[in-house]
Design a protein that fits this description.
Number of domains: 2
CATH topology of the largest domain: SH3 type barrels
CATH architecture of the largest domain: Roll
CATH class of the largest domain: Mainly Beta
Strand order of the largest sheet: 3-2-6-5-4-1-7
Distance between the termini: 34 Å
Number of helices: 2
Number of strands: 7
Helix content: 10-25%
Order of helices and strands: HHEEEEEEE
CATH superfamily of the largest domain: SH3 Domains
Strand content: 25-35%
Length: about 120
């Protein structure tokens, strides 16, 4: 089976360790991996959904939910965490995002920001 091994920096150097804590840098690494895999394995995109985008948590901590119900709190996420949104819903009059993981989070711009459409 074909495989790839990548090195994205070394946490034993202060400069690399700082970069590896930066969500923007991590996103660039992830995009680079995707682009490299596409090229190496000659992959093609089946379909593109313009409704998929990334969000970043702005609040110090924020609840996520295991279903589209404001009472279904499942845990918390933290400032700087990044998630892939696959759907936007309205729940009891407020917007909520369905995440790629199947979990849900508020779409309130006081708590999250869109970083990549």
């Amino acid at each position: 089976m074909p495989a790839l091994l990548t090195e994205n920096g070394f946490i034993d150097t202060a400069e690399d360790a700082k970069k590896l804590k930066d969500p923007t840098f991590i996103e660039k690494i992830a995009r680079g991996h995707v682009n490299g895999l596409v090229k190496a394995f000659k992959l093609t995109q089946k379909s593109k959904s313009s409704s998929i985008f990334l969000i970043r948590v702005k609040a110090q901590s924020l609840y996520y939910y295991n279903k589209p119900d404001w009472n279904a709190k499942a845990g918390t996420v933290h400032k700087g965490d990044v998630f892939t949104v696959v759907q936007t819903l309205t729940v009891n009059g407020s917007k909520m995002y369905k995440l790629k993981s199947g979990l849900y989070m508020t779409a309130n711009t006081s708590y999250v920001e869109v970083i990549k459409k």
